[in-house]
Design a protein that fits this description.
The chain is an alpha/beta fold. The protein has one domain: Rossmann fold. Helix content is 30%, strand content 24%. It has a 7-stranded parallel β-sheet, with helices on both faces. Strands 5-6 form a two-stranded antiparallel ribbon. β7, α4 and β8 form a beta-alpha-beta unit. The longest helix has 14 residues. The termini are far apart. The relative contact order is 0.19. Its EC number is 3.1.1.61.
Length: 204
């Protein structure tokens, strides 16, 4: 039975410049009133100062915050980690930053987030794989779907055919929604807010 007192968690993974644009597009369409916690992992250099929060915040209707380790994650906010501290979800809607000075997780940080949401997100969770190379996110998305969450993937539109969306689609099990950023934003609104509030998502 669904726990209607628990928050929704929307976990988004992307990589590279195209992935950044995809995340910005989705955030621009999700309403400030969305009753969900949005968690974002974007592959980026670990040894450079990051301005990701400001870049995403400029496109987003909801605040974009850098999660503090052990802090409770609040509905109506989007969260990222620092470049070398990987964002994950813990029990009780708390965020945990996994410090990784030796880069043990390398390009598996989206899987890390998705698996944590699968473990602690209850049955009100959505995983979204956007543009990026290789296959980070595929295993974690399958785990999230197996745990009862919704899986969404950007429609593959460009070579190479071994990118994150293609690998997520081909890895294991069905995908609940495949589409462009606007399609995915509307699907998120539909799941979180219900059919009658889909109009809160602005058109692309």
């Amino acid at each position: 039975m669904e726990d209607y007192s628990a928050p929704w968690f929307v976990a988004i993974g992307a990589s590279g410049g195209k992935g950044l644009s995809d995340v910005q597009a989705i955030l621009s369409l999700l309403p400030r009133s969305l009753e969900a916690v949005v968690l974002i992992v974007l592959h980026r250099p670990w040894d450079h100062l990051s301005h990701l929060a400001g870049v995403l915040g400029g496109a987003s209707q909801m605040p974009v915050r850098i999660a503090a380790n052990g802090s409770r994650l609040e509905i109506g906010n989007a969260y990222i980690g620092e470049p070398g501290d990987h964002l994950t979800l813990a029990a009780g809607s708390f965020g945990v930053l996994v410090c990784d000075p030796f880069r043990r997780h390398r390009n598996r940080t989206i899987d890390l987030l998705f698996r944590s949401v699968a473990a602690h997100g209850g049955n009100r969770m959505i995983g979204v794989v956007l543009s990026g190379a290789l296959d980070d996110g595929a295993r974690g998305l399958a785990a999230l779907h197996e745990a009862g969450g919704l899986s969404m993937v950007l429609t593959p539109t460009e070579p190479p055919d071994c990118g994150m969306p293609e690998n997520a689609i081909n890895y294991d099990g069905p995908i609940d929604r495949i589409g462009n950023p606007s399609d995915i934003a509307f699907a998120i609104c539909e799941a979180v807010s219900g059919e009658d509030q889909r109009s809160d998502c602005r058109s692309a």
